[in-house]
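Review box. Two proteins, two foldings.
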Amino acid sequence: MGCMTASTGRRVLLAAPRGYCAGVDRAVIAVEKALEQYGAPIYVRHEIVHNKYVVQTLEKKGAIFVEQTAEVPEGSIVMFSAHGVAPVVHDEAAAGRLATIDATCPLVTKVHKEAVRFAKEDYDILLIGHEGHEEVIGTSGEAPEHITLVDGPEDVAQVEVRDPSKVVWLSQTTLSVDETMETVDALKDKFPQLISPPSDDICYATQNRQIAVKKLAEDAQLVIVVGSKNSSNSIRMVEVALDAGASAAHLVDFAAEIDEAWLEGVTTVGLTSGASVPDVLVDGVLEWLAERGYGDVETVKTAEESITFSLPKELRRDLRAEAAALVADRTGGTPSAE
């Protein structure tokens, strides 16, 4: 570790990697590009990513966030969030004469494809994840008759399958690695022939950020995670920090939410951010801490990230014309020029 500031002995350990993952970066840019290319409004089903600041910023640019596909006016463009949607949502969009942009993270899409493949082979699929999370709803919708949700190790005792020799586990991509493997171990005790997915479902960014926060917790009495309350990966990072030995860990959306009482007796603050968080929010926390004597900032790097994803292919088409054509097809009329 680097030297502390001589005057106060206070420092900040800044995690790297932190913040935006490739899937979030792709989804946010997709909304911005759609607004530039097609003009406002662009409807987005659910929050494009789980971050209050990002959602508010995109709303100011002309994005409209809705909870249900039925809220989108006929002939409009709707984007599906990075968390993915069930096949029935695509059907709803088609029935509503909507042009669609699918911004589902490719790593989530991979889990969807695994669910479809194992269902076709008539496996019982045990999906490890949190009930009600958009990603879990989307994955479950790919094969609802084959998928059983397992929300942590405590659920394992109640799990029943048709054939213990044909069981596979999949998982939500944003979970705690340690908690997920605890659930997997419990499932393997109950179903010794349980098959693991062909590759680890927990995304690289989630794993990297959890490894980084564990490193921070070795030396920091307080860990601050920048992220929203509905961000699964951000919540998990707080839990991981506490499990790794931090005396305290808190989740905040903005610097203004930090309680100065948290700093009492603290010489070293660990700082990181969830995979949906832009660095401008972390910069705000660094400024807030510097004003209170924590001006010595040391980066703690635990991994390099170079993964990028191409933008959704739909952004290469004229979706406004496609939406108008869908409406015209229904009414038997001619699409109006825009």
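Next protein.
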Amino acid sequence: MKKIMALGLTAVLSMSLLAACGNNNNDKAASGGDAKPSSSAASGNTGDKQKFAIIFKNTGNPYGEKQMEGFKKAIEENGDEAILKAPDQPTAEAQIQMIEELISQKVDSIAIVANDPDALQPALQKAMKAGIKVLSLDSAVNAKSRMVHINQADPERIGRTLIQGVSEMIGGEGEIAILSATSQATNQNTWIEWMKKELEDSKYAKIKLVKVAYGDDLRDKSVSETEALLKSYPNLKGIIAPTTVGIAAAGKVLTDKGLKGKVQLTGLGLPSEMAEYIESGVSPWMYLWNPIDVGYLAGYAAESLVDGKLTGAVGEKFTAGTLGEKKIVADGDGTQVMLGDPFKFDFSNIAEWKAVY
């Protein structure tokens, strides 16, 4: 699996990335990434290129920058134009405004990483009525708001794996807390539900989940929430942060307070941001999938929807570039495509991966 991921990442990162142009000064470019979110479609004559937009949760999120990078690569491999957008704050209201802008620009497709599963429904349904192909990725909108969802990995496996990991770290006994993103994030909430179900097993009888805190995927708030957890629960033994922003913030707090080995940390993080904490032992290990591949898969799914090769129905298959053939499966009242299983990053492999993403 490692070799396959490495090859895919090498191919992605070898591409030179161009930022999409925009003319709305209220939309700031994401910091620190090659793929910059734009506030509007690129100006000028685009010829016969179809326009594919992606809206991430907010700017300044390295995970989101990599996801948009993969989306852009897929769209450009097909000779089309990628429009990268993200609001300054992770709110549904900001995303709704962007959806309305894209409808007026008559884009061919909108892929969205939702800040709320239901609040975006009227705007996304308006887009679909206008003939725009809509899909969600990473954090889903409800089934009535999309044609298909692109999932990073099996939500059950993510949730159960995180509990199994922290249990091993704390010796199967003690208080744990979860530091999530926003309280409306569908992916976070689904993983947390599976964590709670895993904890129902009798083998976790000596582990107590004391709180689910929300850092809203903002660094400063995630730092404050981590500090509050440590103050409110002095006997806390472990923190699970299923968000790349949250886990890095928690890693810094635990490092600064000298709590290595006293409070264990795991979750979902970017190798480049978590390397120092894994190498120091503050976080023995953590997990993630390849965010570049999530965006890349969404890009190919969007292309197939626009080309009429997909309708979003269960059982349909399509070829997603270097990721190969993918199949649409059931997802409650809707459908989804799963990228793969979460991948474990620890001291044995973090040096290799921290230079990749």
